[in-house]
């Protein structure tokens, strides 16, 4: 119990958070009403009851549907504010949040509406909680290269407000190689690069993310552990893994939370971090994810401090700011 309190109070950064995945059912209902959007649920309880997934695609289908209530700037601001308020309560001092512009532009919501709303929430969080944040623009990998290039084009006026590009959505069948040219262009534009890889996809996808997308950080990365040479490479290069324990459990990437590989990652010398991914859908914010790792008994206070420290080391903050947080 002491350990839970210690872990909860550790200052931390969150590096793997889809802002659309922080849409709680209560806010979904409120926005549906405000925007007069019909949703296929009768109650908040019915929404929560639908959150039972057997794989990534199961989840994505319901996640994209939920995002339909987001229509105007104010909705994106309210979404971000709700997340930052919750994160601040978990001692999150800095967050690098993903957003999926294509989920919105494909419904006729402009890129500028999405970004303006999110930036308003980010400014408010800094003023209210001293919580700093950065934006990561994710391309939906089930869509084609041309659509990703169009999204990158829409981001051009906002380049000074976007830290990085990422790659998410359905992994298997959509390897990193599909976006090699888009990521090369993003790099030329001065953006950092991250990608979801090795969540459901094979170690070969992690190799591609390194060699073809030139990633600065690896999202999930669980299946890299199947390839010892890859593990050595990732440990030597100091690659940060943004690991999401409760997501892994809910999406059946693992069968049992007590068998989560994060302890193994640390022992292998990998720079692992703990994150919540889509907290409204997976049953917990970042402290719930840390707390879920306690019962297995494999991590001590020092390990948890390392995980929190890794979250700052793996962030895209400059070195002086990272030092101030450690
Ligand atoms: N989009 C939101 N959460 C995701 C995840 N865990 N994997 C891939 N795409 C996602
Ligand atoms: Zn994710």
UniProtKB/TrEMBL annotation:
Q: What class of enzyme is it?
A: hydrolase
EC no.?
3.5.4.2
What single Pfam family name could you report for this chain, choosing any that match? A_deaminase
Can you tell me which residues bind substrate? Answer: 278
The entry's free-text remark on the cofactor is: Binds 1 zinc ion per subunit.
GO molecular function (one): adenine deaminase activity
CDD domains, from UniProt?
ADA (cd01320)
What is one Gene Ontology biological process annotated in the Swiss-Prot or TrEMBL record?
A: adenine catabolic process
Write down the chemical reaction(s) this protein catalyses: adenine + H2O + H(+) = hypoxanthine + NH4(+)
Instruction: Identify which cofactors the protein needs according to its UniProt entry.
Output: Zn(2+)
What does the sequence similarity comment in the record state about its family?
Belongs to the metallo-dependent hydrolases superfamily. Adenosine and AMP deaminases family. Adenine deaminase type 2 subfamily.
Q: What is this protein called?
A: Adenine deaminase
Q: Where does this protein come from, organism-wise?
A: Rhizorhabdus dicambivorans
């Amino acid at each position: 119990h002491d350990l839970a309190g210690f872990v909860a109070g550790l200052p931390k950064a969150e590096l793997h958070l889809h802002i659309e995945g922080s849409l709680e059912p209560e806010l979904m209902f409120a926005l549906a009403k405000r925007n007069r959007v019909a949703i296929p649920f009768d109650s908040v309880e019915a929404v929560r009851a639908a959150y039972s997934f057997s794989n990534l695609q199961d989840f994505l289908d319901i996640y994209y549907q939920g995002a339909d209530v987001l229509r105007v700037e104010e909705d994106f601001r309210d979404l971000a504010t709700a997340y930052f308020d919750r994160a601040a309560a978990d001692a999150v001092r800095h967050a690098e949040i993903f957003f999926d512009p294509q989920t919105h532009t494909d419904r006729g919501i402009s890129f500028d509406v999405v970004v303006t709303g999110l930036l308003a929430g980010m400014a408010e969080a800094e003023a209210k909680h001293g919580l700093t944040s950065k934006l990561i623009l994710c391309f939906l990998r089930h869509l084609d290269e041309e659509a990703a290039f169009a999204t990158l084009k829409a981001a051009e006026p906002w380049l000074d407000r976007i830290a990085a590009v990422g790659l998410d959505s359905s992994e298997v069948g959509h390897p990193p190689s599909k976006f090699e040219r888009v990521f090369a262009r993003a790099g030329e534009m001065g953006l950092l690069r991250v990608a979801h890889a090795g969540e459901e996809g094979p170690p070969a996808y992690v190799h591609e993310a390194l060699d073809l997308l030139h990633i600065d950080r690896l999202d999930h990365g669980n299946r890299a552990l199947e390839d010892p040479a890859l593990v050595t490479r990732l440990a030597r290069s100091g690659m940060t893994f943004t690991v999401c324990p409760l997501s892994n459990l809910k999406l059946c990437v693992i069968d049992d939370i007590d068998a989560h590989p994060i302890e193994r990652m640390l022992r292998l010398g990998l720079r692992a971090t703990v994150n919540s991914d889509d907290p409204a859908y997976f049953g917990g914010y970042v402290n719930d994810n840390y707390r879920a790792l306690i019962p297995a008994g494999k991590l001590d206070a020092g390990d948890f401090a390392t995980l929190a420290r890794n979250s700052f080391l793996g962030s895209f903050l400059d070195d002086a700011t990272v030092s101030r947080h450690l």
